[in-house]
User: What shape does this take?
Amino acid sequence: MAALTKSAAPPALGTTAATLFPPFRLTGWKGWIGPLAVMVFGGIIRFVNLNWPHSFAFDETYYAKDALSLLRYGHEMQFDDSVNDIILASDGNWRTIDIFKDDPSFVVHPPFGKWVIATGEWMFGLNPFGWRFAVAVLGTLAILMTARIARRLTRSDLIGVVAGLLLAVDGMHLVTSRSAVLDMVISFTCLAAFGLLLLDRDHVRKRFADKVPLAPSEWGPRLGPRPYRWAAGVALGLAIGVKWSGLWYLAFFGLMTVFWDISLRRQLAVRQPWTATFLRSAPTAALAMVGSAAVTYLATWTGWLRGDSGWGRTWADGMDSALPIPAALRSLWHYHAEAWKFHVGLTGDHSYQSNPMSWFLQTRPVSFYWRSLEAGDGGCESTKCAAEVLAVGNPVIWWIGSVALVYTLWRWAARRDWRAGAVLVGVLAGWVPWLLYLDRTIFSFYSVIFVPYVAMALAMALGAILGPADSPPERRRLGAIISGGVVLLAVVLGWWFYPVWTGETLPYLQWTWRMWMPTWI
Assistant: This one.
């Protein structure tokens, strides 16, 4: 981030703010056509046969039932895994299905992600379509958001559409969009916060676009109200309410927006941009983002707080306290302390666990669903067939995208490109923290939280390969062939891997053709 705020020469005499902050190029409704088109495409491949597999895929066996418990009791209750067959054979009426014990359940993830899953169950019943519906909606909307965010970052409709299309055909994103797991919910909320902070950046600069010529000053002007920053704090509070890993995005994005303010004050010829920012912007940024995130996060526990039968809900009742803190909040703090002990002590081996260092190579994906079939069974028209839902990323997006991230790092470090820095922050906030917990049981699909930024980085790199509009025709032609070829290859591989992303029944030989690495099996 330091490169983004490196000392720069003061504006030349007569420089206007409009020169430093050119207005965003508006294309009206035309700027929505491409993003909406790739969203519709991505939505179709996410919603087709969403009820398949008619089973609990991986951690759906926990979250689908926890979501039902939230609908019924406002908090999680204990259940037996033996109820899976009862649920799958039922009529899906969540109001009448009785699968819970009399005791509350201790769960280590906050409730918001399960509330999202619960909305689909409330609308469509306790069945695979119901518990996957709301997550699929968020995964589809994330495609539109990625396209519009990339467009705003680059001021290019084409790059925005390419970023959205790449996300639409990524297997990691598609599988977690079609599964009732928490990772798509936190990915969506963090992406929403990123987009809101980008809007905040643009709107603050827009206030100075029509000002008189700039003159050096000690503190510079005040930057005015920041509603988008407050909204970003709410989105990050919801992210933390899904998984605590959202705290890292709160920290990284909070620092990013403060560094953007330092850069703005440099452009406004402020003599002490660091001091002015930390005295004027940092406190309000902390209040807007940390404060709103804290209140939002607490609100996600409303169901647990309102009752008295949730796990540990009455732990502090009758206990003396040196501080005037309600017993319910002290009980909630105890709950969090116990959950933290669980997280830091989670070191058991799992056959699908992976090292975060390998995520960009996608060497150890997670199989969400597997079924081996014989001839005539479940549509198998061969001697032996396989049906699998494998959470593996599109090789083009992850392998070539990793090269694009190296280019993005160079753009930030050598060219002081703030857009490259912003995309890198989105990736690092979702990846680097896991390097601190290499002894924990970690899965590669956690990386879906930062795959939108990988797609943006690749789209921006392809835009650089294409070249500016005023480049020589030969240069543009070669750039179009290379960049267009990469996008076409990503789409083709999306088609090739789609059967093992969605659990289609394949002859066993055709299934093996899609297992490019022995570690994918």
Notes: Residues 1-9 have pLDDT under 50 and may be disordered. DSSP finds 19 helices and five strands in the chain.
